[in-house]
Design a protein that fits this description.
Elements (H helix, E strand, L loop, with lengths): L20 E2 L11 H10 L12 H11 L6 E4 L3 H11 L3 E6 L3 H9 L3 E6 L10 H7 L3 E5 L11 H7 L4 E5 L19 E6 L12 E4 L2 H10 L7 H11 L2 H23 L5 E3 L5 E5 L3 H10 L2 E2 L1 E2 L10 E5 L3 H17 L2
Parallel strand pairs: 1-11, 3-4, 3-5, 5-6, 6-7
Antiparallel strand pairs: 2-8, 7-8, 9-10, 10-13, 12-13
Helix pairs in contact: 1-8, 2-8, 3-4
């Protein structure tokens, strides 16, 4: 498995999508909202024009939805773009990454010629982050996933503020909209930057859309560094429609509250599995025969995410998205049958 490989690998050697039930990518299983689908249909002919380089309509929608000033926004071709922009523009000498975490943090930091230092969290402590210990090794920049991928841990805002006393902190809140919890956007300053994906919650990863909330001078600097048309025409239109769909967010959170409990309850009954408590729409777990589980599930056309290439984990760890009840039952029933075969 390649070091920076991600989930969602549903394509064959010819680039064609296979008939997979994909639990390896953490996308909202409610799929495209009717508002987004109608907006894409209505605006399809508009792709003959360049997108608005200022993305003014989308900026207003983000500003209104999240109560942040437009002057603090950087619009993104997916949240991952932010890390490449940030590290290439600022070039911090030393970056600390608590692991396990999203691999693009490291990849982007190394692309910006930054020295990367890991801070290893422990399975015995459910990979919780001890900020007091982290402060000892803090450098020019610390990257925090909130909730963290793949562990699901949600660091309290006051701990982010403590970290910002000794280093710049980039907080990735790409999954925050799945929860009704306090964001750290309101604490943005010269020392705290926040990035958020819109592709996961609104099920538009193929369009790529995200934004960052940063200090005003940094926003100007990063906006000068990026491609002027980095957010395409349809992504801008889809984003505006999505952010106006409060009902979709409510239905998503209601689904997750029920389905997360169901998924965990079923998984807890299975032999040999160690679960790490989830907060959002994915769950990390461990089994000594994880490789065999992966291979046998592939025979059933089901994909899970191997965590073998996450720094701080190994081949015994798996991550699963939480999907619809019908899809979850298909995975859980297949997994139960596989585990019974190990006895």
């Amino acid at each position: 498995m390649e070091r920076y490989e991600h989930g969602g690998q549903i394509y064959d050697a010819k680039g064609l999508a296979g008939d997979w039930l994909d639990f390896s990518a953490n996308i909202n299983p409610l799929g495209l909202s009717e508002k987004i689908l109608q907006t894409l249909t209505d605006n399809l002919r508009g792709v003959v024009n360049y997108p608005d380089p200022q993305a003014s309509e989308l900026k207003r929608a983000i500003s209104n939805r999240y109560d942040v000033p437009e002057k603090n926004l950087v619009l993104l071709n997916g949240a991952a773009e932010f890390f490449y922009l940030y590290f290439n523009a600022l070039r911090p000498a030393r970056v600390v990454i608590p692991v396990p975490s999203f691999s693009e943090y490291e990849r982007a930091a190394r692309a910006g010629s930054c020295e990367v230092k890991y801070f290893f969290t422990r399975a015995e402590e459910n990979f919780s982050l001890d900020v007091d210990k982290l402060e000892v090794t803090a450098a020019d920049c610390v990257i925090i996933g909130r909730p963290n991928n793949p562990t699901g841990n949600l660091l309290a805002p006051e701990k982010i503020l403590r970290l910002a006393e000794v280093a710049s902190v980039v907080v990735d809140e790409s999954f925050i909209d799945f929860l009704e919890v306090e964001s750290v956007r309101k604490f943005v300053s010269k020392k705290i930057s926040v990035v958020q994906s819109l592709t996961k919650i609104f099920a538009i990863p193929g369009l790529r859309l995200g934004f960052a909330v940063v200090e005003e001078n940094l926003a100007r600097r990063l906006n000068l560094c990026k491609d002027v048309w980095n957010v395409n025409f349809l992504a801008q239109k889809a984003g505006v429609a999505a952010l106006d769909d409060e009902d979709f967010l409510k239905r998503t959170r209601a689904w997750l509250e029920i389905e997360k409990k169901f998924f965990v309850a079923r998984l807890e009954k299975m032999s040999g599995i160690k679960i790490f408590p989830p907060t959002v729409n994915f769950i990390l777990f461990r089994h000594e025969n994880a490789d065999k589980i992966l291979n046998e599930l592939r025979c059933e056309k089901i994909l899970l995410r191997s965590c073998a290439n996450f720094t701080g984990l190994d081949e015994t760890y798996l991550r699963s998205a939480i999907r619809s009840r019908k899809e979850n039952l298909r995975l859980l029933d297949a997994l139960k049958k596989i585990l019974e075969g190990f006895k």
